[in-house]
Write a structure and sequence with these properties.
By secondary structure, the protein is α/β, with parallel strands linked by helices. It has two domains: 217 residues, Acetylglutamate kinase-like (Carbamate kinase), CATH 3.40.1160; 139 residues, VC0802-like (2-Layer Sandwich). The protein is 38% helix and 21% strand. The protein contains 15 helices and 18 strands. The strands form four sheets. The chain has an eight-stranded mixed sheet, with helices on both faces. It has a six-stranded antiparallel sheet with strand order 14-15-13-16-18-17. The protein has a two-stranded antiparallel ribbon with strand order 4-5. A hairpin with an 8-residue loop joins strand 11 and strand 12. Helix 8 crosses helix 9. The radius of gyration is 24 Å and the shape is globular. The structure holds adenosine-5'-diphosphate and aspartyl phosphate. Aspartyl phosphate binds next to loops. It comes from Flammeovirga agarivorans. Keywords: Amino-acid biosynthesis, ATP-binding, Kinase, Nucleotide-binding, Transferase. It catalyses: L-aspartate + ATP = 4-phospho-L-aspartate + ADP. It is an enzyme of class 2 (transferase).
Amino acid sequence: MLVYKFGGTSVGSAENMIQVSNLIVGGESKIVVLSAVSGTTNSLVGICDAYFAGDKQLAEKLVEDFRPKYDKHIFELLQEQSSRDQANDLMEEKYALLKSFSVEGFSEIEERQIHAQGELISTKLMQLYLEEQGVNSALIPALDFMRTENGEPLYDEIEKRLAEVLAQHKGVDLFITQGYICTNEFEQVDNLKRGGSDYTASIIGACANAKEVQIWTDIDGMHNNDPRFVEGTKAVECLTYDEAAELAYFGAKILHPLTVLPAKKKNIPVRLKNTMQPEALGTVIGPNCDTSLPVKSIAAKNGIVAIKIRSSRMLMAYGFLKNVFQIFEDYQTPIDMITTSEVAVSLTIDKTDNLQSILADLRELGQVEVDEDQSIVCVVGQGLIEDSTIVSRVTTALNSLKVRMISYGGSANNISILIPSENKNEALNLLHSELYTTSLV
Ligand SMILES: Nc1ncnc2c1ncn2[C@@H]1O[C@H](COP(=O)(O)OP(=O)(O)O)[C@@H](O)[C@H]1O
Ligand SMILES: N[C@@H](CC(=O)OP(=O)(O)O)C(=O)O
């Protein structure tokens, strides 16, 4: 069994959906996970925002905005009148549902139900197209098997339910399902957070003991720097699970940060491929990746807040850090980077919903300074620790910038640097020129 996942751009037009069908029909058995048509989830988020703001009229207008896009998509994808009718009926049902909520009492439960509609639409359209083409495929609802508790996938239950669902379709070897959506412990519709379809594919891969998970997107693999901000980036041939996890966590948007975990549990390779350029090798993420490259890639994450706590009570004392960490634990706020001196500790967070309460509690421990609008730039590669020249090259490359923190040695494959966000693009470009010169590649 193989698991393929196609992202928003890959299903974003009729032409692209047809290309997806060319990639999935035939060959080995597959479970194909689809995201929503590109832009759809953002629009659904906008509709929920309008309901929360008490503006039902705006919500209804935003629903109507879907119409031209989906009319075109359906007209170009499906040729038979009966399948067009089915698709149009589906859309009318969805428009009616999306407009059916009232602003009074609109809650996160309804919000999650709305967010789920994008994947429900894209998968149904794909299934209608495959049926029209005479392909023997089955649409399996993710809400029937993808179960979470406290936001965590329940692997045993998913494995059992998925096997039951697959067994209902004897003789079928192509299954289409929704990424991103799930049901939670309260039997409510929920999701795996934005970009979560990659994670769905990896969870399904682990639960179906897949031979490989393939993430098909709009670029030919993990590049050696962020292609949105740096010119001349190129695809990396392979990454270890740990390298890929670091890159995804620190901003490489191509992969949802949790994708690697389920695949790693079962040693399943994850291959990143380009839907529009399937012949390109892409990137393989797996247990081993031996290349001579000490630096595999560079990524950056915005929206970081740096907090410094200074206290003379820290001098020659123990237990101070425990008290600091306890505060972050109380507010369920993960810490990303940390550096300490005898009398001060600096750390960073990117979850800021409880920032004011955290700061108030920290002020009980010492003087607190806060820097907002920071970015973590992260250099990732297995050989970073062995090659002692790299850390000096990283700091030299950035010597014109105001570096706020550096973290080196926490993991064997990561150097993280905290800088003001306004310098992020410059930092990515400076590191690119310094680290990918002839002596390293
Ligand atoms: N290091 C990187 N390598 C490749 N792509 C990256 C990297 N960092 C950011 N990206 C961006 O990730 C995008 C693909 O991810 P995403 O938009 O989530 O795709 P999908 O909608 O298919 O899930 C690319 O178009 C690229 O701009
Ligand atoms: N549609 C969801 C889930 C997802 O993973 O999308 P994509 O694969 O296009 O990043 C989102 O936009 O967050």
